[in-house]
Amino acid sequence: MYFDDVKIGMTVDIPSAIIEKEKMMDFARIYDNIPLHTDEEYAKKSPFGGLIAPGVMSFMSVWAKYLEVDLFGDDLLAGKSTKIEWLKPVYVDDVLTAKAHVTGLTKRSEKNGIVELTIHAYNQHGDLVLTNITEAIVKCRP
Q1: What DSSP assignment string belongs to 2-44?
Q2: End-to-end CA distance of the chain
Q3: Please, are residues 8 and 2 in contact by the beta-carbon 8 Å criterion?
Q4: In this structure, how many other beta carbons lie within 10 angstroms of the beta carbon of residue 10?
């Protein structure tokens, strides 16, 4: 989808992502190796009462599902920025559902523009667990 075809307020449903224990722990051991993510006994005694997913892993699980939607297709040139805010813990076996909203458009040149997408991700209880604002550089119609 070309930059010219995108409108503020457009929304995209993102397929659900399941936080699987082994994948979560593998990710944590490599990228965020703290007991809250990898040691069940430690995590039980924490304020969370159990293992929680690393924040980046929670976001990347949603992001991977967003990429399946392939909103811009071949018209996506690059990412420009991203900002993630974690609001609630994500636990093993949580099911995250999300929606992306177009919240900004900035034409940079005749060739491309920046699309700002805001993603809201919820757990299976309806709790907002994270938000993300991503800027993507997208081709303009030739």
Answers
A1: -GGG--TT-EEEEEEEE--HHHHHHHHHHH---HHHH-HHHHH
A2: 12
A3: no
A4: 16
**Residue 69 DSSP one-character state:** H
Q: pLDDT digit of tens for each residue in the chain (142 aa)?
A: 999 999 999 999 999 999 999 999 999 999 999 999 999 999 999 999 999 999 999 999 999 999 999 999 999 999 999 999 999 999 999 999 999 999 999 999 999 999 999 999 999 999 999 999 999 999 999 9
87 vs 89: CA distance, rounded Å: 7
> Structure tokens of 15?
């397929």
Report whether 94 contacts 123 (CB < 8 A): yes
Residue 53 dihedral angles phi and psi, to the nearest 5° = -75, 145
